Amino acid sequence: MADRNTPKKHSKSGDAREERLKAALKANMARRKAQAKARAASEDKADKDEG
Predict the structure, then answer these.
(1) Is residue 20 a part of any domain in this protein?
(2) Of 1, 12, 23, 26, which has the fewest Cβ atoms less than 10 A away?
(3) Is 14 inside any structural domain?
(4) What share of the chain is helix, strand, coil (3-state, %, to 5)?
(5) 3-state class of 50 per DSSP?
(6) Phi, psi of 22 (to 5 degrees)
């Protein structure tokens, strides 16, 4: 259990994993931002159509 709290040294594979995670997070955030923007645009269009 004590091993779990000790800081781990990043090896090359750890750095590569971290870079992959960063890239995946960036892509996910961009996709979610685009989805939110599309939803907002469709809601604006629906509001204009109704009233």
Answers:
(1) no
(2) 1
(3) no
(4) 85, 0, 15
(5) helix
(6) -60, -45
